[in-house]
Amino acid sequence: MSGTLDHVMMRVADLDRSLEWYRSHLDYEEKDRWDGDDFTIVYLGPEELHEEGAMLELTHNEGRSDYEMGDAWGHIAVRVEDVYDAYEELMDAGVEDYRDPDSCGGRYAFVKDPDGHEIEIVQRDHGTRWSIDHTMIRVEDADEAIGFWTRKFEYEHTDRWEADTFANYFMKPEGAPEEAMAVELTYNYDGRTYTMGDAWGHLCVRVDDLHDDWEQLLVREAEEYRDPESCDDVYAFTKDQDGHEIELIERESLEPPLFPE
Q1: Which class in CATH covers the domain with range 5-250?
Q2: DSSP character for 186?
Q3: Domain locations along the chain
Q4: Considering 51, 89, 120, 252, which one is annotated as catalytic?
Q5: Which residues pair with 204 in a beta bridge?
Q6: I need a labelling partner for 27 at 20 to 30 A (CA). Which of 43, 89, 114, 177 fits?
Q7: Active site residue 156
Q8: What residues contact residue 208 under an 8 Å CB cut-off, 6+ apart?
Q9: What's the pTM?
Q10: pLDDT per residue over 101-119, tens digit each?
Q11: Measured between alpha carbons, how far is 46 from 25 in angstroms, rounded to an integer?
């Protein structure tokens, strides 16, 4: 099992406001949605989404507007051709100034969406503009975190950045194209712990066979959090060593309808 990362989910207080923000500033389009009894899920992404590219899932729960950001989740990163040009474009459009390229050594920049989710802007020579490059999560033990993604999901360590006080490790499926989303594991050397919050939801891995791959995860001693049967046999959830939720979903393509029936 070596599934591509399918999407990252975040919760939003005002769905219409968030949809307008991502449409107008990142040129995202709605790929599909699901209306439940008291919640709505919307998948978003660039119009020209690579077949192994990742989507953004926005979840809105009726009557909820007070999500806790926590610090166990960091950000999503989106690709642009020129970080300075992209940042100025967002500033001209009225996006709040958060961390400009100069404050980040000219290599990247950060903005926030209406709910405070951090979005990194990274310069890449591949992938559709604004497509998701990686999702960053913070981990308390780098060896355990790398081992989790290597053993459970057969991911490989594709890149790293080591500084004086922290290190970033990037993980992807073996042989994944550049356009696929990576998971960035951030490890701070000072031994700090993190709070999960509920403004971020989960990462999702696209699998070939939900039930077979779920059973393989259990053989590899993954946490049995929500099995396929408890999720109407359309998806399942495990957790990593720090408690980040990871969904498994079976997809035939990225064409609607995206929700299994």
Answers
A1: alpha beta
A2: E
A3: 5-250
A4: 120
A5: 7, 247
A6: 177
A7: no
A8: 1, 3, 250
A9: 0.95
A10: 999 999 999 999 999 999 9
A11: 11
